[in-house]
Specification:
The protein has one domain (about 10-105). Helix content is about 90%, strand content about 0%. It has helices at about 5, 10-45, 45-65, 70-105.
Length: about 100
């Protein structure tokens, strides 16, 4: 990696790139999911992989747009991948908590 790529990079800039890439990837993935849910995603059998790929690609694109290549792309791809992992983990926990609440009473 070139020294020039890291020159103007501050903690605030990195935080902004990662946060905005994560938000954009999450939002656009949810829109993509809603639009194509019934038509395409359920029929392919690979709907999770498709949605994660969209999140990673959108995160990378936003990272490139905000901070340039290669560092911005790397941060964007990482934030897109991390977003999908966090969302999947939270949904799993919430679903488990809802199931235990339903059986407790």
């Amino acid at each position: 990696m070139e020294a020039d790529a890291l020159e103007g990079l501050t903690w605030e800039r990195m935080t902004m790139v990662i946060t905005l890439s994560a938000l954009a990837s999450s939002s656009i993935t949810q829109i993509f999911k809603a639009v194509l849910k019934e038509r395409v995603l359920k029929q392919t059998g690979m709907h999770r992989a498709c949605l994660r790929a969209v999140a990673v690609l959108v995160g990378g694109a936003f990272g490139w747009w905000l901070a340039g290549a290669p560092l911005g792309v790397t941060m964007g791809v990482a934030s897109g991948g991390l977003t999908t992992t966090i969302v999947a983990s939270m949904r799993k926990r919430l679903k488990a908590a809802a199931e235990t609440e339903a059986t407790d009473f």
